[in-house]
Structure formats: C-alpha cells, structure tokens
Amino acid sequence: MKEFWYWAEEYDKKLITSAIEAGAKVIILNDPDKEEEVKRLGRIEVFKEGRDFEYVLIKGKEDEERAGKYPPNVKVVVETTDWTIIPLENLIAQREELYAVVKNEEEAKTAIKILEKGVKGVVLKSKDINVIKKVGKVLEEEEENLPLVVVKITRILPLGLGDRVCVDTTSLLNRGEGMLVGNSSGGMFLVHAETEENPYVASRPFRVNAGAVHMYIRLPNNRTKYLCELKAGDEVMVYDYKGRGRVVYVGRAKVERRPMLLVEGKADNKKISAVLQNAETIRLTRPDGTPISVAELKEGDEVLGYIESEGRHFGMKVEETIIEK
C-alpha cells in the first residue's frame, strides 16, 4: 500500500487533524517546538527534513542525478517544478524509497501509477481540507489489478473435522468481493465475503470465512501468509470479481473446529485446490460476481480464481521448482 505523508508548512491544528483523519502516516514539520503538539493529535510519526528524509527540488538533470545518488535505505522526497513525470520515471527505476510531492488528488493518482510500480508514497502540500480528504481517498482506494481466471470445479470431497479461520475485517465488503486463498500460493480461489442473508443467519459483510489453517492468503505487495498466522492489525487484500484489489485490516482472526470440504478445480490446465468449511454460508465467486455456496457446488461449475507460476519462500515470490500436491 502506498504511503500518505502530509507536509505541514506551518503548525495548523485543523489541517494536521484533517490529514491524520484522512489516513496520513507521517506529518512533516520542521518546527521542533510543535512536534509534541502534533503527536497529541493522534498516534502519528513526525518527520523533519534532513533528519528523517532528504528533499530534492528537481529543476534539471543535475538535481535528478543528485536524488538518485543517495544510499538505497535513505528516504528521498522529490518535488518537480512543473510536475512532469519523466524525472519520476527515471528515479522510480533506480530506487525504492522514493516519495513525490503532490498538490492535489490528480497528481497523487499519477504518482502512484507511474511505470505501473509508482512511487512508494505521496507527500501532499496543500492547505485545502477538501484536497487533503480527496488525496487520502485516492490512497485508500489505490487498486491492485489481478487477472482472475475462470476455474472449472473438478472434485468436491468432504474431509471431516478441521480447524478453519474466519477473518473479520475493519471494513465492510461488497457483493462480488472476497479474499484469495488456496492450498498453494500458485493457485487460489476467490472466497466470497459473507454479504448474503439467509433464513438461518444474518449477513456479516465484514467477514470472510477463509478456510483451513494451513492455507495461503494473499496480502499487499504480492506477499502471502498462512491463515493461521493472521492476527488483529494485519493487512490483507480483498478483491472483487473483476480483479480489483484493495487493502483491508484484520480486526479478528477466529479459529474454530468445523467440518471441512476439499474443493479442486482446473484453470488453464493448472490444478487449484482449497479446504473450506462445509457450510451453506461459505461461498465461492462466479465469473459474474454472484456468490455460490459450497453446499450447492458441483463438478463442472465455474468460479473465479488466480494462478501464478512462481513458488513462495517466507511469503515472498521466488523463481524455483516447487511441487505441491
């Protein structure tokens, strides 16, 4: 997830509070006498130029080269005089810890998408509360787009009792959204959120009953975790049926012993499998975004999933030969 910093050119309680409420993680303030006042407004980091980051105003090629020469671990904030994207393109190709000064939401949208990778974060300079809120919204809704695939169900097998993880988030999920989970990180199903009501239980639109403890779940920045490792405060990815992803936070991960079901399918001749709770409220996602309960699922049905070729090591994608059955 891209970072949101707010550059307060002077201490202004109203503006800084608005930035914190909009999701800013860092307030830049060069007045050390006001640092404690800022921290009293919320749990927030206060950065100072030259201490926590280096600032470069790019007027020409010489400035661009100077910004690129800092050590890799140094955070560099760059500002361009006419907001052309060419210097940012060059610097993004050179360094990870790059932040761009923006003045509105349109510049923020561009900065986080340049060369598809984008800058690590945006630094907003604005005294307009509405602009602060809009930039916060841009960062909150920053999307990751995945090419979801259609998976044809090939096998459904009751397994008996097992431990499964219910992931409750601090966000409300929509119909057509869910989490990508699977027995292998190379193949995952889109398990639908509990947005649907039925005669026996109310909807829980903040929840995804994700499956067995051993399975992988997709996280931000192309990482994975085992479901049993999730805890309150963790970031996880939620995707809709078109493959658009957003970051949500875990409020609670609940492990309970329940009857389980092995679900297998194929996409592009690649096998995908998952172990899910055997209950009517657990649903996969059809290609049109509608949910289908595992209780109704049958061989030949088509649902959504995701496949990748690389293996994983400690949750990071690696290129190596891995066989999982």
From TrEMBL:
E.C. no: 1.4.1.-
Keyword NAD carried by entry: yes
Family indicated by similarity: Belongs to the archaeal-type DHQ synthase family.
Residue ranges of domain 3-dehydroquinate synthase N-terminal in the record: 1-138
Record bears the keyword Metal-binding: no
Lineage start: Bacteria, Pseudomonadati, Aquificota, Aquificia, Aquificales
Enzyme class, UniProt record, top EC level: oxidoreductase
Domain 3-dehydroquinate synthase C-terminal: 151-325
The protein's name in its UniProt record: 3-dehydroquinate synthase homolog
Cross-referenced InterPro entries: DHQS, DHQS/DOIS_N, DHQS_C
